[in-house]
TrEMBL record:
Signal peptide: 1-23
Residue span, TIR domain: 638-779
Organism: Marmota marmota marmota
Gene field: TLR1
Protein name in the entry: Toll-like receptor 1
PROSITE patterns recorded: LRR, TIR
Amino acid sequence: MTGKNSSLFRFVIILVLVVKIKIQLSDESEFLVDRSNTGLTHIPKELSLETTTLDVSQNYISELQTSDILSLSKLRILIISHNRIQYLDISVFRFNQELEYLDLSHNKLRTISCHPAVNFKHLDLSFNMFEALPICKEFGSMSQLKFLGLSATQLEKSRVQPIAHLNISKILLVLGETYGEKEDPESLQDFNTDSLHIVFPVKKVFHFILDMSVSTAISLELSNIKCVLDNECSYFLSALVKLQNNPRLLNLTLNNIETTWNSFINILQSVWPTTIEYFSISNVKLQDRLDLRNFNYSHTSLKALSIHQVVSDVFNFPQSNIYKIFSNMNIQNVTVSGTHMIHMLCPSQISPFLHLDFSNNLLTDMVFKDCGNLIELKTLSLQMNQLKKLANIIHMTAEMKSLQQLDVSQNSLRYEEDEKTCSWTKSLLSLNMSSNILTDSVFSCLPPKVKVLDLHNNRIMNIPKDVTHLEALQELNVAFNSLADLPGCGTFSSLSVLIIDHNSISHPSADFFQSCQKIKSIQAGSNPFQCTCELRDFIQHIGQLPSEVVEGWPDAYKCDYPESYKGTPLKDFHVSPLSCNTGLLIVTIGVVVLVLAGSVTVLCLYLDLPWYLRMVCQWAQTRHRTRNVPLEELQSTLQFHAFISYSGHDSAWVKSELLPNLEKEDIRICLHERNFVPGKSIVENIISCIEKSYKSIFVLSPNFVQSEWCHYELYFAHHNLFHKAFDNLILILLEPIPQYSIPSNYHKLRTLMAQRTYLEWPMEKSKHGLFWANLRAAIRIKLMAQGKEINHTQS
Ligand SMILES: *[C@@H]1O[C@H](CO)[C@@H](O)[C@H](O)[C@H]1NC(C)=O
Ligand SMILES: *[C@@H]1O[C@H](CO)[C@@H](O)[C@H](O)[C@H]1NC(C)=O
Ligand SMILES: *[C@@H]1O[C@H](CO)[C@@H](O)[C@H](O)[C@H]1NC(C)=O
Ligand SMILES: *[C@@H]1O[C@H](CO)[C@@H](O)[C@H](O)[C@H]1NC(C)=O
Ligand SMILES: *[C@@H]1O[C@H](CO)[C@@H](O)[C@H](O)[C@H]1NC(C)=O
């Protein structure tokens, strides 16, 4: 029983898990529809029922009805900001049970009516035209609410009551242009939020008595503060003083301030003794000159002050007062950026500054000159200033015994090699000198313990081999320079990250991989690689590294030269080892030639290749010649295929080899002694035989030449037959005839022998078949007038 039950139980659990997983999966399948800025006047009708996020911001929608969104039952996020909606009945969302994020900011809403069945996490009604706070009692049941954006021109404490029990992470309150006519200073006290952001009317002088010290707020942000006369600012200053009542407040942010220098310093002064730890001010417009001299730094909790983007109408008054106030601040972090500050004084006593960020100002090399009071400073950023001489920066940091990070990027720094002093502070670990006009010489003076060195976008052409040893250097960025090769790691024995893309490296040496064993990441793409033999080693090495080591591989690594390979990724560039290795090439060619010569020799020696070649050649010639003769004419007059002439010494061969081999294939032969016509002389018989035969075969041997040739020479010459007969002549060389043994007056024979227009009788039996075939091919022809005459002559 229990066993059965537990297995059933397990089954149910698995089922539940499966269903849960399915639900999670379907939750993840987002369906986003973005119709922002498309000139809509209504919510589009043809939307997918699966839509989970709908963005119709920046259109001309003026109305929202239940039917517009009724069918979108999966809708979770709806953004209708920057439209023209004037009235909202929240009950239109009662069927969108999943809806949790609604942005209706920047519309023209004046009134809303509420409905209890909606539960948002994010509801933004800011930048609308509400008079009173748009909070209805139904909001009190939105237990999930994390963000609430409101706007109003009048604040009433009672309107906040419905949401006083909710813990809302962030409330944005935008006060309309007419705010302030009738104020209730206590109206915000019931807000229950970690973070409150109040946007005051843009055009109005700050004349408000609102108490912003909301007791639950950790973070307070105030936008649009304007008080351009010193006495006007008393309202704002007393509002700041009240913040002291709020013990939880840690962060204060002020945006868009327009005031005087005196009031600005007064603002700093009133925040100084509060509980605030992070004070951030941005977009400040300052007028007038600073008269104040003293600043009371005591009782502060501040850890970080940052000031961004300050413009000052007048800057032609002595500013040393301003610099003095800042340089003597007793806090850890100070950021002043995007101002026209041209200088900063050395603190008058040992300073607690740990991190200073003075980026994007107009500071010169004179900043912190001979300053011995910044001995605790760890990071200093002077990015984007007017620094010119690196030697002055080196000299400046020499006194900063704790400095670990220095950023002097985006200046106009150069370094002259003849500078005598190289006194970088020994503590420096990270140095950013990118985007300056430094050259190779910078390598002659670098902080000895530096781990991270950024020199990208300078004018470095070569990393000298004899640079000071930087044993601690782990990360080197020399991208966007004019380097022609990868550096070796002889002097950077710990290098693990090298960034060297966008240089002029055309054929990087593969030595890099031997000397830089600790490399974990190399980024060398976008260089003009020359895809030639020299690059093979590099490609091989880099291709073998794990892909996470080679940043941008393979896409960023392309051939730039030769033209035919331009744009080819290095990974696809292959050359055979042969074409790259001259020694190997020569050896290979040598071997091929030797093998060829060897086989030719073997063929000639053992298989008599030349003989075969001559046979084939003659066969081809015969075929060619027979084709040119008017066959029918021949066929009608001829009775024999061939006439054979030979010396008596060779008659054994003729009778036992030649005749049987020809006659067995139905070839008719005329022999003058066999086909002898009585009553005619031998010569006449021979001539008649020649005339009736298609071809004349002469069996040549030294005997024949000595004894017989002269007859024929004579006969032919006499009967002017040679010319015709020559065409029909087949010479069989039975035995080699040395050239000298041919009498010198036998011109024709000499020519024939020299032209090698004869068939050689091969000694090897294996070649006889081809010999006969060739010979038969030469004399084969279809004879018409066989019948009687042949019979008659034969009988
Ligand atoms: C809000 O926070 C307070 C204190 O942190 C807590 O006592 C209270 O229960 C919270 N209320 C809700 C609705 O979460
Ligand atoms: C306060 O400011 C610090 C530094 O800007 C930030 O890290 C922190 O999240 C802020 N706290 C609140 C609650 O906004
Ligand atoms: C500086 O401010 C503290 C606290 O606000 C105060 O106690 C002290 O008297 C002030 N010192 C001077 C010289 O005003
Ligand atoms: C100060 O600045 C440094 C560097 O920007 C930062 O790491 C640190 O968190 C800051 N400290 C405070 C207290 O804001
Ligand atoms: C150096 O500064 C530049 C900006 O000037 C920045 O992009 C880069 O990341 C910095 N380098 C390091 C190593 O932080």
